[in-house]
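tokens incoming
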């Protein structure tokens, strides 16, 4: 994969991480908002898929784990709590760190 493609992925992932952060902060205030849960899930899903496509295997694997949690949230099996939001924000930070480490 070319450096140019990887840089495009990093830029898109940074935008998705910003969207993710915004949705998570809103989710703290409105934990029952299913659209926010869907937005978080979609951001994770896109980062996972694009990461795998562009050779960011560690990003894809880690993001898959978080995506799985949000699939359970969407199904009503896990509630949105302050702890979930906190862990999700930490996960967002970890994804950003993986991207900055230049994997790919």
């Amino acid at each position: 994969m070319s450096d140019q493609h990887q840089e495009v992925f990093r830029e898109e992932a940074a935008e998705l991480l910003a969207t993710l952060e915004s949705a998570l902060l809103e989710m703290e205030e409105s934990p029952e908002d299913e659209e926010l849960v869907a937005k978080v899930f979609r951001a994770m899903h896109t980062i996972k898929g694009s990461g795998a496509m562009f050779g960011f295997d560690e990003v894809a694997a880690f993001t898959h784990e978080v995506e799985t949690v949000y699939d359970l949230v969407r199904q009503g099996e896990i509630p949105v709590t302050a702890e979930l939001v906190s862990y999700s924000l930490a996960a967002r930070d970890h994804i950003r760190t993986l991207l900055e480490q230049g994997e790919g």
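note: Residues 3-29 form the longest helix (27 residues).
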